[in-house]
Automatic annotation (TrEMBL):
Pfam families: BetaGal_gal-bd, GHD, Glyco_hydro_35. PANTHER family: BETA-GALACTOSIDASE RELATED. It catalyses: Hydrolysis of terminal non-reducing beta-D-galactose residues in beta-D-galactosides. Belongs to the glycosyl hydrolase 35 family. Its EC number is 3.2.1.23. The lineage of its organism: Eukaryota, Viridiplantae, Streptophyta, Embryophyta, Tracheophyta. Residues 1-22 form the signal peptide. This is Beta-galactosidase. InterPro entries: BetaGal_gal-bd (IPR048913), Galactose-bd-like_sf (IPR008979), GH (IPR017853), GHD (IPR041392), Gly_Hdrlase_35_cat (IPR031330), Glyco_hydro_35_CS (IPR019801), Glycoside_Hdrlase_35 (IPR001944). It comes from Stylosanthes scabra.
Amino acid sequence: MKRLCLMVLCFLYWLHHQAVKASVTYDQKAIIVNGQRKILFSGSIHYPRSTPEMWPGLIQKAKEGGLDVIQTYVFWSGHEPSPGNYYFGDRYDLVRFIKVVQQAGLYVHLRIGPYVCAEWNLGGFPVWLKFVPGISFRTDNEPFKAAMQKFTEKIVYMMKAEKLFQTQGGPIILSQIENEYGPIEWEIGAPGKAYTSWAAKMAVGLNTGVPWIMCKHETAPDSVIDTCNGYYCENFYPNKNYKPKMWTENWTGWCSFFGTGVNVRSAEDTAFSVVKFIQKGGSFVNYYMYHGGTNFERTSGGPFITTSYDYDAPLDEFGLYNEPKFGHLRDLHKVIKQCEPALLNGVVEVISLGNNLEAHVFRAGNGACAAFIANYDTKSAVKVSFWNMQFDLPRWSISILPDCKTATYNTAWIAQSTPKKWTSVWSVFEWHSYIEYPPWATEQDAITGNGLWEQVGMTKDTTDYLWYMTDITIDQNEGFVKSGKWPVLNVNSAGHALQVFINGQHAGTAYGGETNPRLKLSQAVNLKPGINKITLLSASVGLPHVGVHYETWNVGVLGPVTLDGVNEGTRDLSHWKWHYKVGLKGEGLSLFTEHGTEAVEWVQGNSLAKKTALTWYKTYFKTPDGNDPLALDMISMGKGQVWINGRSIGRHWPGYKAGGKCGDCDYAGYYVDTKCKTNCGQPTQRWYHVPRSWLKPGGWNYFVVFEEWGGDPTGINLVKRHW
Ligand code: GAL
């Protein structure tokens, strides 16, 4: 009997131990991993925005920065390029990425979405999804739900098969379904509510063993946790008092749009927001982004999202420390961890120390004590006395006393850092050029129809480019023929950029911008008696990634297209016969690859084309020694795309200068609603990341630029970051 009892006891002990060993739960205070409440610092690093070769270094730096968790979305468009054809290689090797995190001893928060927003083309959905019959995105729609469930299951089963959930001994402690659905549900009502409860049930039913999250989604059904996204989240509370207060996106800066300033956020304000959140009971903070990286190829959303996704994150686009932000947050994490016992197991006392001055004191039964002393005034520093001690508090700052006595950290104490510089490593390229002339209706692959057609319906987003072609016969008796006063062509487009050619000659350029992707071109054009060819090149610059039914937003020349100044006044060409051609000739010939290079005649030396629209450039350069990150300084170019060794670096557009207002933000302090911008009057993006691993070690690299507007390639410079 005694022996039996002992065996039962042993068994119970083992059971308990197992449960504690591999469990992720939560209570009102925190996420509980293996039976322990935790304050978790997390950072977003999106695997396709860097290369697998960069991942270990980035994750190590994140660990050094004091992170416990790496958060990533899952990028459906990269994983299922066509229905049922899955891809998990190279930058899309999700399992490898998660294992790199695991090897570093960090946890993972996997935001499956599969809607991700993220400034990713079409919000992360593959473009083919838009063309599934009867589909409507992110609502109570059967074709959509079926596709979403299939992909979510695919990812969950894959994670399970690789034993990556924490309950299986893996690093994933949290998942996410959907993304910021709250505002959409609010707007669309009943079908939104039905979709929410379906999505939560579907996700929870997958039995991952770890909690699910729905960010910015107040109606998240149990057991899913609703969380906050924003610059400040201290006043956010989850929808049930038994859920922890979590911050899934603390924006460390913001994304950039071609044509507007580059958004930045001070290290001081970022740290201040974190401490404010924690002193009001928050226990999970994720930095969005911790490493932003690069929108390679045509992955950037938009329209107009830049190729760089630097985000002013603690690790810059190239994986280097963005100081002082990186170090300041690292120090913050260290000191908060010292306070963890008091914060998670204690009770809080809030003490007013005067106008805009406050102390939060946390005391636990075991004697642990931590205090935060805050000055919320945005203008003035103060000397404050607390428990007969004196503290100097800069404006808009909080001091942390991990032992309730000594202030070892203040959110506004910042170490100065020197700005980073680029140095040239290769500037004398031997360029060759090839000019691509506008196509004509009689060409192979040209399609003819009546009226103006939507662009993505034609291209299926396999390319940025769609040609619109028509011809117009000008009578000898047209008044303008005699007067010489050219008629005006008006082209209205839903976006995003446009070039006009008349009889093969470049005649005008127009483009939209962040606040309005639409564009209108009005241009006097030289039409001659007889037949004239009008050729329009419409370019998309990233498909929308956010908004109610953003999948229905149009791209391309939808009209009206009119000609003013003819005998009858205005001639409307919108409903004429138009011919269409998808993509560039050079794309079709794969001029960006070495095997495609022979397809056309290139010229060089004195014949090199400069300042000419639709020009392809090619050259070779030798891989520079060392490991410093590399970039292309594209300052002398207009707009187009860049490839190295056949791989797409992304869209370049230094010709689009940042408009708007810069500098009306207070860097050291208060983060105003109008985001802090830099770079006004300069190209929004001048430098383009060239991943080291895409180059041939010690060898020569095939480098191609397609220039849409006209530029001077001799001004292109390969540079490295000098730190
Ligand atoms: C959030 C969204 C993220 C990202 C961010 C802006 O609202 O959840 O995916 O788009 O905005 O960078």
